[in-house]
Amino acid sequence: MREWATKEPMSMPILIDKYHIVADLYGIVNVPAAVWVDEDSKIVRPADSVPGSDMFRSFTNVDSEVHHSLLRKWVRTGERDLNDQQVREFQVSPDQDLQLARLHRRIAIALRESGTDADGVSVHLARAEELAPLDWTIRRGNMPLVGADPFGDEFFKFVGQWSQAGRPGFKLGTGRTDI
Amino acid sequence: MTVGLIINQNGETASVEVASNFGEFAISLDDFATITGWQLKPEGLCIAENCVPVRDAKMLTNHTHIDLIEFARVTNQNIAVDQQRKVAALGEQADVRSEAMTTLDAPDFTLPDIHGRQVSFSDYNRRKRLLLAWSSW
After folding, report:
1. What is the residue extent of each domain of chain B?
2. Which residue, among A45, A12, A50, A17, has the nearest Cα to A33 in the 3D structure?
3. pLDDT at position A4, please?
4. Which terminal residue of chain A has fewer beta carbons within 10 Å of its beta carbon, N or C?
């Protein structure tokens, strides 16, 4: 990531969140996602799936320009597309299983860093997946940690399960062309 | 005593000694205050100005150590524990998190940037902020 992020000069800070703290705080269930926060530190647009480009549009059915255009408008004029009540309505609240899954994932990450206990890493990643089988930050987030390709067979198997379950997760659907 | 690892709800970690003669996962009062931000006082378990009464102090503490599992229960926090490997992770319960989200207050957090420097979301207070979550895979 460092290599990519330093290739072009960027003024925004790029932070590494190995324990998924921000996902926990802001109800982020997949990446890429964006949250808008205003000058008074209020959330004015909740986490939603917002691709930076149309590269995966045939898969996501998201027109990335829709979010970009809403964002430009808010930055320039302060005009929002959602009111506070809508922000609350479209937030994704966690359940206890997801909260516990996050903790098991953190234990796995810590054990992985200590580097001596591969069994411990597997046990806690598996426990996290049992608890939150449909959460992308858990299921797909675990793939690189166990050597699975986050764009490969495991990924498409997960997408199948998630679709069958009615695509739980982000509710807003910014720029979706199929709904 | 055995060495254990605690991960707090902010993702900060501390290596601590875990008591062998008290509780299920008990650590010293000093380590406890450092890693959790909570303190044991005569009025109960306290963080900043807020205190939670402790009904059964004998379960919680032996006056030198405090049991993290009982602490999590008394203060309504989640805890995941690996007893074999002596690792514990503390976090917010779903209803506490959901309630906090409805205030629309943007929670602060501090994380290392790609150069290893600690950056807080609040370093950018009083500006519009776009918080983007992504992965390089």
Report:
1. 2-92
2. A50
3. 67
4. C
Q: In A, which residues are within 8 Å of B118 by CB distance?
A: none
User: How many inter-chain contacts (A to B, CB under 8 Å) are there?
Assistant: 166
Inter-chain touch B97–A99, beta carbons under 8 Å? yes
**Which positions ≥6 away from A105 have C-beta within 8 Å?**
A19, A20, A124, A125, A128, A138, A141, A142
Which residues of chain A lie closer than 8 angstroms to B87, CB-CB?
107, 110-111, 120
Helices assigned H by DSSP within chain A: 2-5, 21-26, 57-60, 64-77, 84-90, 96-114, 118-131, 136-142, 153-164
A169 close to B (CB below 8 A): no
Which domain range does residue A152 map to? 96-164
Residue A40, SS3 per DSSP: coil
C-beta atoms of B128 and A6 within 8 A: no
Other C-beta atoms within 10 Å of B90: how many? 22
Q: What is the pLDDT of residues A31-81, one digit of tens each?
A: 999 999 999 999 999 999 999 999 989 888 999 999 999 999 999 999 999
A44 part of a folded domain = yes
Whether residue A77 is found in the same domain as residue A142: no
Per-residue pLDDT reduced to its tens digit, A120-131: 999 999 999 999
C-alpha to C-alpha distance for A25 and A37, rounded to whole angstroms: 13
Check residue B96 and give its pLDDT.
97
Query: Taking CB atoms and an 8 Å cutoff, what residues of chain A touch B114?
Result: 1-2, 5-6, 14-16
What is the pLDDT at residue B26? Answer: 98
Q: Give the residue from A67, A90, A113 where a domain finishes.
A: A90
